Amino acid sequence: MSVAAIDLRARRFAASVPELERLQAQALIEEIETLKRERNAVVLAHNYQAPLIYHGVADFTGDSLALAQQAARSDAEVIVMAGVAFMAETAKLLNPARSVLLPALDAGCSLAESITAGDVRALRARHPGAPVVSYVNTSAEVKAESDICCTSANALRIVESLGAPRVIFLPDRYLGHHVQQQTGVELVLWDGACEVHQRFSGAQLRGLRREHPGLHIIAHPECPPEVLVEADFVGSTQGMVDHLTRARPAQVALITECSMSDNVAAEFPDIRFTRPCNLCPHMRRITLENIRDALRDMRHEILLPQAVIAPARRALERMLAVGRG
After folding, report:
1. CA 206 to CA 10: how far, in whole Å?
2. Which of 10, 55, 218, 317 lies deepest, with the highest CB count within 10 Å?
3. 174 and 269 in one domain?
């Protein structure tokens, strides 16, 4: 990390974490930084991580795919994923020669856990000839049964790149519904959902507008359709940041996991953030203490069988190839 990047991280850390909390965590942060140097390691922190981790110890931040790609461009021998299990698996798939550590093995994901590799095989049997598009928020085993992966940012482009009249799209039914409204391709959807995003409602957003006249609402496409209808902009986590950069609203509500608002607010001090807060319980399982323990003890390394790595990585690489096209 460059001197300028370190300085920027320090300023955002100070802006987003109370002084007492920073002081209490300082010794642990210094221990983590020492271990990173000794292990030639980097810490990847997802947008939904708490500011103490996101601004305190992360070398790379972003969505799950961006994190894995950034790690691939580094010369680190060890990757610590401050995120959930499918994100650590994605990092391993794109960095098979690196050691990838997940600080908490119980950091799961309701969406990824909603479907299995057997479910995908059953869908193929019911819809012969239909290609399978799997969201990156899936296990490596599900990716291995898929033709191609997608993110919330490129899902529409991926679906239409296949040139098929019918596509199996899994597992998020709300993201699938959002894509279906924009394409003539028939989508076969799975009944999965993110436990954080599905809790938002249209009535909640209308209430926010009444309380905050002029509020600009940005929603993640994993939210229910009634929420997306009420939003001024719908986009992925990175899409939200890009939109804020362009639009610069006076006051905004990010309808997603609320730690993201805390993290993004440090980048936009001129914007007032209203925080309707749904926290991801799985992200909260990552702590400074278990990041330290993972680095110190090389704990919870992600190991995947080659029979899964090869086809799962192929599905990811096909997605990346469409993005480069």
Report:
1. 37
2. 55
3. no
- Number of helices followed by number of strands (H, E) in the chain: 15, 12
Would you tell me how many other CB atoms lie within 10 Å of the CB of residue 75? 7
What are the percentages of helix, strand and coil residues in the chain, rounded to 5?
A: 50, 15, 35
d(CA 264, CA 273): 9
- Output the pLDDT for position 283: 94
Question: Residue 179 is part of a domain; what is its CATH number?
Answer: 3.40.50.10800
Check whether residue 7 and residue 94 sit in a common domain.
Answer: yes
Buried b (16+ CB within 10 A) or exposed e, 221-259: bbbbeebbebbebbbbbbbbbebbeeeebeebbbbbbbb
134-173 per-position pLDDT tens digit: 999 999 999 999 999 999 999 999 999 999 999 999 999 9
Which residues of the chain are under the pLDDT cut of 50? 325
Q: Is residue 311 part of a domain?
A: no
Same domain, 83 and 122: no
Structure tokens at 218: 């940005």
How many domains are contained in the chain?
A: 3
* Residue 143 within a domain: yes
Q: Which pTM value belongs to this model?
A: 0.91
Residues 228-238: tens digit of each pLDDT:
999 999 999 88
Q: Which domain holds residue 252?
A: 197-274
For residues 131 and 146, what is the distance between their CA atoms, to the nearest angstrom?
8
Cα separations (Å) of 207 from 77, 227, 276?
A: 49, 12, 11
Give the span between the Cα atoms of 62 and 227, in whole angstroms: 24
Q: Give the span between the Cα atoms of 44 and 223, in whole angstroms.
A: 25
